[in-house]
Amino acid sequence: MAISNQISVPEKVPFWLDPKKRAIIYQIAVMAMIGLLGYYLVSNTIFNLKKQHIATGFSFLHKESSFEIGESLISYSAASSYGRALLVGALNTLKVSFIGIIFTIILGTIIGVARLSSNWLVSKLAAIYIEVMQDIPVLLQLFFWYAIFYEGLPPPRQALCPIKGLFLCNRGVAFTVPAPHPAYKYMLLALLGAGVLVFFIRRWAKRRQEKTGEFFPVFKVSTALVLGMPFAVWLAFGAPTKMDVPRLVGFNFKGGMTLSPEFIALLLGLVLYTAAFVAEVVRAGIQSVGKGQREAAMSIGLRPPLVLNLVILPQALRVIIPPLTSQMLNLTKNSSLAVAIGFPDFVSVANTTINQTGQAVEGVALIMAVYLIFSLSTSAFMNWYNKKVKLVER
Amino acid sequence: MEQATFETNIEDVKPPATSVGVIGWVKQNLFNGWLNSILTIFTFVVLWKIVPPFFRWAFIDSVWNTTGQACRHAAGACWSIVSANYRFIIFGFYPYDQQWRPFLAMMILFGLLFYSRNRKHWKKSLGYAWILGLFTMGLLMKGGLFGLVPVETTKWGGLPLTLLLSVFGLTAAYPLGVVLALGRRSKLPAIKVLCILYIELIRGVPLISLLFMSSIIFPLFLPEGITINKILRAQVAIILFTAAYIAEVVRGGLQAMSRGQYEAAESLGLNYYLTMRLVILPQALKIVIPPTVSILISAFKDTSLVVIIALWDLLKTTQSVLSNPEWMGFSREAYIFIAIFYFLGCFSMSNYSRKLEKELSAGEESR
Description:
By secondary structure, chain A is mostly helical. Chain A is built from 13 helices and 7 strands. The two termini of chain B are 53 Å apart. Classes of the chains: A mainly alpha, B mainly alpha.
């Protein structure tokens, strides 16, 4: 109908039948509706806040927080400001996510490879692990591990000691670490220096090989550098070997390093849960590289490590990295469940702040902003990576 | 050697005993090569260390039907925590003598789900059956009509609440997700930007922040005197959250449609609505069934998060039993019990999705 109209009278199309004008009208209508809704909600909120005498704005960030936080990477006390408390929470979130991501990738890769093993028993066990872990909510898993810690382990006085210097009890895990010594700081610097050196050596070796065809043993040299430089620093400082062993003082362990049950339950739950998803990602990635690729690489005379390094991994990683990143992001977002078992992550601290100040709008906005920053920076990285590894078609 | 093989009839020669039957299977699947042999033996040792003690704890030394005091003397698992409290764990604070109502509602739900399993039953009448079923379930839960005693929503809890949040969450999130996906692919810039903003914003934040928003901020949004109950608010948060993920999955399906489909629909004179309704969506939604199911599975699992805003779902009723001094300390047993619930739900969904995927791809090949 509309079409026949348009064809017969092309000059005078009523504006509601002109797709271009209609599109503009639609958009204006939608924007107006959303604008009105937004105005209605905001005005209601402001009215309600005023009525309940709740302050608005972010000035509360400078006020004294007057609550304690169990574990913190930076110095913090109840006299510190809310802003600092939130920073402590954000750092705790980053800490648990960072450590969790490392362990998840290791465990997930092992399970994913095991799933593809020709060994029936290993492959089936991996399959069972993946299915069971994916099908139980991560929150339930967190509660379960926390309960195991809290109920299953003895109090500090009867702490289990499976290995010398490692103590397990319901107050957490205490283990031996090297006693503080200035050497360790410089060893870390040496390690960083070695990393930078390795980066440049790789670039140089690749260029040289492309130009002259000469091969440079990059892997051996970089291993030697990464291990050797910190070791040399350690020797230069007189090889300190003093260890800090945890001792039972009163009702708890002093010295060494102690991890709280909340932290361990959170880490364990997140890692075991996410590893099941990562295992599937890794399996799919490995399976995506055809058998012919390996055979072709072998037939041009590459040795197995080089086959893996030059042929299999670059192709598998292209498939693995994008879903892997989104799993890592999921882990970071799931770390917000820490609030349920009492680990002071960002959400947990923000929740306490909301309860104390009553400024819910600002608190939830902060939570959302922090996680948005995490995920936007991750997706920025993803776009960069995707561009880098995109198939170059000739 | 070669002579011998030629002389005997090839039919008479049996394969060596080590390459067929049980031994052959074991050799081929467990002990092919020294690395796999070591792996097998190592795995067996680990399993031997774990499985028999667990079996002993869970079945042999366990107690099934005693009081909490008697449990403390048992060497194994205390399943009594489940047998003594299962009514509360499953139904929460729902009035005890009325608990047949949520039970019946759940049975209707399971019946409908079971009936919908078969793709041959996917007709319009099934849609009506679902609408009728959901209505009946709501009536059974809420009461107030046909002589049923009304039950406040604050008393709803346990498994019916978990299922309610999942089922209504999913049925409402799906159409919203499809609309958002269409909006994201729209040619109208304002609508496209709005949808992108919404999807990326929601996908960037954890569900818990939305739940906080629904429980703390949402009441501030409403004018004075109007309140919306807590379950509905959490339900809205779950819907808004799931819809963004469904939108992304559906967008994948829309992108997989070739231009020819759009052009063919246009050349038939179909407008935008009819193009989508008759040509594009039926195909696009079919492609993305498997990823959609995995979104549904995670949405089902995510309903457990409402525990954090103190709704009495399955996890919360369990925790409340655990805070009773009589049953304190038997968390493992209680958590394993509800883990089985979640596992059965998710496992049957993922199994079904695999079956469906196979059926659909088979249909694709025969064409």
